[in-house]
Design brief:
Serine Threonine Protein Phosphatase 5, Tetratricopeptide repeat, 281 residues, 2 domains, mainly alpha, 0% strand
C-alpha cells in the first residue's frame, strides 16, 4: 500500500514538473492573449525571438512585459533588453527611450552603467560624415564622461574612454576641414581660429600636428613670423618626426626654430611655455 502511494506521488510530481515545463515553453501566436501569460512565459518567448533573429518581435514582447507586469523583476531586465535589441536594429530613438526609462526607474541598479552606455551609443552610432552637424557627437561625449566619472570601475568605463577619444578625433576633423577651406580661400583669421580650436581643445588627437603646421602657414601669410615660429617650435618639440614639422621647417627657411618669447603674449606663447615645462600633452 505504501509502495503504491509512493509510486502515485512520484507520478504526480513528474506530471507537475512536465506541466510547468510545457507552460514555460508556450509559443506565442496571434490567438494567445498576452495578459493570460506569465511574465516568465513572455520573457522566454521574447528571448526565443531574439535568438532567432526576429528582433522586432523580441523588442515588442520585452515592452509588453513592462506594460503588463511593471513591478516584476523581469520587467527591469526586459526594459534593458529592449534597449539592447532596438540599438542592434538601429532604432536609436526607441533604444534611447528605454535606456532613459531604465536609468530613471533604477538609478542604483548594477546595470545602470550599461543603460548609460546604450544611451551614449544611441548618439555615437549616429555620428555622420564630417560635414554634418555634430550635435550627436557632443551628446555622446557628455554621456561617455558620465560613465567614466560615475562608474570608473565598470567594464563600460574603458570602452567609453576609447569612444570618447574617437569622438574627440571626429570633432577635430570637422574643425580641420573648415580650417583648410578658409586657408585655401585666404581667410586667414578664420582659419587660425579653427586650427587654434584643434590645438587647444583636442590636443591629443591625430590632427594636432597638421593643425600646428597650418597655423605656421596662416601666420606667415599674415606676415606674423613670430607666431609662426612659436607654432613650429611647439610642433617640433612634440612631433619632430612628423612630416608636418618638416614642412613647417622648410617654410621658415630651414633655420633653427628657437622662438624669443620676451614680451610675447597670447595662447601660443602660453602653450609653448607649458611645452618647455613638460606640462602639455
Amino acid at each position: 500500500m505504501n509502495s503504491s502511494k509512493k509510486s502515485a506521488s512520484k507520478i504526480n510530481l513528474i506530471l507537475g514538473l512536465t506541466l510547468l515545463f510545457v507552460l514555460g515553453c508556450v509559443n506565442i501566436d496571434e490567438d494567445i492573449v498576452l495578459e493570460d501569460l506569465s511574465a516568465r512565459e513572455i520573457f522566454i518567448n521574447a528571448e526565443k525571438a531574439w535568438g532567432n533573429g526576429d528582433n522586432e518581435k523580441a523588442a515588442e514582447l520585452f515592452l509588453e512585459i513592462e506594460r503588463i507586469y511593471p513591478y516584476s523583476e523581469l520587467a527591469k531586465q526586459a526594459l534593458l533588453n529592449n534597449a539592447i535589441v532596438l540599438q542592434l536594429e538601429k532604432d536609436y530613438e526607441g533604444s534611447r527611450l528605454s535606456a532613459n526609462r531604465f536609468i530613471t526607474f533604477y538609478p542604483a541598479d548594477k546595470n545602470t552603467p550599461y543603460a548609460y552606455y546604450l544611451l551614449a551609443l544611441s548618439y555615437y552610432d549616429q555620428i555622420d560624415e564630417i560635414g554634418r552637424d555634430q550635435a550627436n557627437t557632443y551628446e555622446a561625449l557628455k554621456l561617455f564622461r558620465i560613465i567614466i566619472e560615475r562608474y570608473p570601475e565598470s567594464k563600460f568605463s574603458s570602452a567609453s574612454s576609447l569612444k570618447k577619444d574617437l569622438a574627440f578625433d571626429h570633432l577635430a576633423a570637422k574643425e580641420m576641414e573648415v580650417g583648410r577651406y578658409y586657408l585655401k580661400n585666404s581667410h586667414y583669421i578664420a582659419a587660425i581660429n579653427r586650427f587654434e580650436t584643434v590645438v587647444k581643445e583636442y590636443p591629443t588627437t591625430s590632427h594636432t600636428p597638421e593643425a600646428l603646421h597650418r597655423l605656421v602657414e596662416a601666420y606667415l601669410s599674415l606676415g606674423l613670423e613670430g607666431e609662426a615660429t612659436v607654432a613650429a617650435a611647439i610642433l617640433g618639440h612634440n612631433f619632430k618626426s612628423s612630416l608636418w614639422y618638416q614642412e613647417s621647417y622648410n617654410l621658415l627657411g630651414n633655420e633653427d626654430i628657437n622662438p624669443n618669447l620676451t614680451g610675447f603674449r597670447g595662447w601660443l606663447g602660453d602653450i609653448y611655455r607649458q611645452v618647455i615645462r613638460g606640462e602639455w600633452i
